[in-house]
Amino acid sequence: MMRQSNIQQHTMTLWNKEKPEENCRDLSEDNMHDTFCSEEKIAESSFYTPEQFSVHQNSKESTKTLFKHNEPNNQNDDLINFVKMCKQKLDRDELPANFDQWTVEQQHDHLMSNVDKYFPNIPASLRFILPGIFKDGDCGRSASERPGWLDVDKFRRGQKFAQNYYAGICIAQVTSLLQLFTLQDGLKTLILSRKSDTPYKAFKRYLSTVIRVNHWYLEDPWDRRTQAHRDIEEVRNMHLAMRRRLCSYDNKQIDAGSQILQLYCPLQEVLLKDFRDSCPVASDFQCPFTMTRTKSLNQGDMSITQCGFIGLIVLYPEQFGLHNVCDEDLEAFCHMWRGLGYLLGVEDRYNFCRGSLLEIQQRVKDTLEYWIKPNLSLVTPEWEHMLICLWKGLRYYLPTSTYRVHLLYFCNVLELNMLGLYKSLSFREKAIYLWSIFMFMYLARLPIVVAIMNAVTRRCLNLAVNFRPEKRHKLKKRSDENIL
After folding, report:
1. Of 187, 104, 176, 387, which Cα lies nearest the Cα of 271?
2. How many CB atoms lie within 10 A of CB 250?
């Protein structure tokens, strides 16, 4: 039964208020970085609350658009390797008799047109992603183009929902990085960028992401006057830069460049044992991201990243403090991310957030069950290292728990039995873990608690944005000297 929404039904006016006074320091010189990509600068990156925020009514020109039609195309090798692998592993009797006489492109097109036949182990709800891993991650459309399916009121309702449950949504989206890190080629790309492999670098990168996403939750991202629109164009141009960089390397160079010299992974053996005891083993040809390697940010990467932004929210809202939400709210949240994906260059056919809420929830379930859980049993030392850097970077400014507590909480949400991880926790960490369950599952039922969580989160983010140079230098020094 649908539950009563606590989101007001009227059209919100966040897109039309007057511009607030600038009360925060500009961080445009700090070279902060987005989760999607490698190198970028934050412009006008002060962190605003919904009450403070408005459209920037200045005449500043939008970021110069560079992402159209001039990306490198390095996909021929990917197609050749994929077709070769399929010839070796698929039953040759199932392939057309003259298959070997076709060009590689014809062979690939045939396989992609018959995904249901040749790749039945991929969950039906996710088979659309396989062709997407061979498509450039940006389809090249204008960042100002509005799709015909866009419902502006629903998009705004999604923004309102995100602001009303801001703290819980932030925590869920950060938690989703634990699952995205299990995709090995994506993790290698992240390491190769060298922008989050220490706590201080992770602090800058993910603070940058939170700021950008906050802009997207507050402004009209199609309006060229807004910071949200400028952020969209900036992110797309950064994706292009990373695609060019990746395509200039071969796989051996990528593997060598994604090594971490000073790895910190104290629980590697414990985690592997727990995951292997709790997680299912993947079947052959079950996950497109493990069956073949591609060297570029592609449509499949963009689609699975969308899943990271909405997945835990639409499937487990109460575990992250989102109580008394109705299906319309969750559907509006997904509609918002469908629109943001469209703006970031995701083709409609590969947009993870298209379709009904039930369809999206099924995709998330299948992603977790058939891709993420089997991948957890194969996590590498680099996975734990990057997770530790992420969480220690967050603790520079958020009153959050240790990475071990949060990892255990994530595994509890997925119903994984992590006995070894639980035993590794100190008494204090076990108490924090139990408190986290109580806070999200019970205390957050009270609107006043949600309001306090939102206020504390926003205050902490605003303080982090305005860290003085001496504070940043101290954090960087501590990070460089010791990851502990």
Report:
1. 387
2. 11
Q: What average pLDDT does the structure give for the chain?
A: 87
Q: Assign 268 to helix, strand or coil.
A: helix
Asked if residues 99 and 127 have their Cβ atoms less than 8 Å apart, the reply is: no
pLDDT at 336 over 90: yes
Q: What is the 3-state composition of the chain as percent helix, strand, coil, each rounded to the nearest 5?
A: 60, 0, 40
Q: Cα-atom radius of gyration of the chain, to the nearest Å? A: 22
Please give the pLDDT value at position 92: 87
| Dist. CA 2–CA 13, nearest whole Å | 27
Residues 6+ apart with CB under 8 A from 431: none
**CA atoms within a 13 Å half-sphere pointing along the CA-CB vector of 314:** 31
How far separated are the first and last CA of the chain, in Å rounded? 48
Report the C-alpha gap between 365 and 483 in whole angstroms.
34
Could you tell me how many residues make up the chain? Answer: 484
Q: How far apart are CA 91 and CA 36, in angstroms?
A: 37
pLDDT in tens, 270-293: 999 999 999 999 999 999 999 998
| Identity of the residue numbered 248 | S
**Number of domains present in the structure of the chain:** 1
SS3 379: coil
> Cα–Cα distance between 314 and 165 in angstroms, integer?
13
CA dist 207 and 27 (Å) reads: 11
Q: Is residue 27 part of a domain?
A: no
Residue 18 backbone zone (phi > 0: left; psi -120 to 50: alpha; other: beta): beta
Across 52-86, b (16+ Cβ under 10 Å) vs e yields: bbbbbeeeeebbeeebeeebeebbeebbeebbeeb
Report pLDDT for 406: 95
Residue 431 to residues 128, 228, 450, Cα–Cα distance (Å): 43, 40, 21
8 A C-beta contact, residue 104 and residue 80: yes
Location of structure tokens 């891709």 = 371
Contact 46, 24 (CB under 8 A): yes
Q: Which residue has the higher pLDDT, 369 or 296?
A: 369
Residues 6+ apart with CB under 8 A from 12: 156, 157, 159, 160
Domain that holds residue 251: 152-482
The percentage of the chain sitting over the pLDDT mark of 70, rounded to a whole number, equals 84
**pLDDT-derived band at 379, boundaries 50, 70, 90:** very high
In the block, tokens 């995904």 appear at 115
| pLDDT tens string 440-457 | 999 999 999 999 999 999
Instruction: State the average pLDDT over residues 246-255.
Output: 89
